[in-house]
Amino acid sequence: MKRRIPAAALAAALTTALLAGCSLDSDSGGGAAGADTVPVVIGYQSKTINTVTAGTLLKAQGYLEKRLAAVTERTGTAYSVQWQDYDTGAPITAQMVAEKIDIGSMGDYPMLINGSRTQANPRAKTEIVSVTGYNPKGALNMVVVPPDSSATGLADLAGQKVSASVGSAGHGTLVQALDRAGLDPATGVEVLNQQPQVGSSALESGQVAALSQFVAWPGLLVFQGKAKLLYDGAELNRPTLHGVVVRESYAEQHPEVLDAFLLAQLDATRFIRSEPLEASRIVAEQSGLPQEVVYLYNGPGGTSFDPTLKPRLVEALKTDVPYLKSIGDFADLDIDGFVDDAPLRAAYAAEGTETYDAATAVAANPTTLTGTDPVCGLPVADPAQASELWFDGATQTQPAADPTCLLRSIKKARAEGRGIRAAYVPDAELGTRWFADKAVWVRDGARYLPFTTAAAAGRYQQTNPASVPITYDRAVEEVRP
Predict the structure, then answer these.
(1) SsuA/THI5-like domain spans which residues (predicted)?
(2) Which of 28, 250, 322, 442 is the most buried if burial means most Cβ atoms within 10 Å?
């Protein structure tokens, strides 16, 4: 949407329509609203928790409806919001091609497929208008294997079946990771195109050797003890992101709706940044996911919830295109033309609390752990070391200066008989936030280092021969009080 209707022109059109006793044509095939009501159809993924600021959390908090109510108060135009929940981005794209969804949120690969498949139809053509969440290294997508699998790297999957949702962000990571591991993505493994739930069942029943998916599926399966992590997408060291696409024709006809949506997304972003634990409770309640898993990704040091369309994220989309062409029919797409930050710039300007350019320039995760470690007595200052402990029944978490201090806190809690709901640590090599009790631990002198995968721990041991592997429980027992 490179042309936006000026506010004055929009007001005049609305006035004319109201005086004529009718409303503007909605251009939406998905609404069932009355003749004087503009339908707004939103496609989202409740369990894809990096899209919560444009989906699950946004919906639960009613931010969009509140923003549209303000528009109604000013103009008299009524709006009817419909939320449609899907497991992946593919069905959202299908509905946008059919002009039945107006705004949708999905991962990077699905957004590119969305743009490619809608561009031939002017009424269906879409553009990216914001990011919901991203990881600068790619840790939003992972490959997991059964707990008893002997595989230690992707090369061990050669010739075996791997479940993935073809065209999804998780599939994109698999394709790139296999290529980097020296396996032909087309022939090195047999990819079964399955929805996340189906793939999870296939992994549990032994029908597939591995599953490659986007958040929150890898964390969920590992948390449930149904899988272990084989490959952390952060090894690619390439940004992965989720974002928002809108049908240009709808946005041009109803710019006030897109304005309201982006302002509502800013509302949700502020909330998840300021109240991450409460936000994770709401998302867990709405999605059916365990709160511990939601908080793994939505908590401090997890996903970067930042709506700005940063240049490095746009560049990452461009480098995804060759991989998309390698896995299927993908029509050429002008990425620079597909990405439009003008509506989001306008939303930032309307808010007036921060300029869009200033927000875009921020590279660090906007939510980090702070405070003082009560056991080690140290400030929690280094995001690459900061860890977190969540006690049973607690409404707040306890920070730890580093993973070794976290183990000391856990040892103290066990001695006092306190239950632990969850503990989180950053991978010592890649920085990925992970469950402390599911991490692969290495002791190096008096330090205890967690890794998401055995491969990452092995790389550390190769360059630090004095270090030794150690189990989580053993590390808790041995750590100095």
Answers:
(1) 127-279
(2) 250
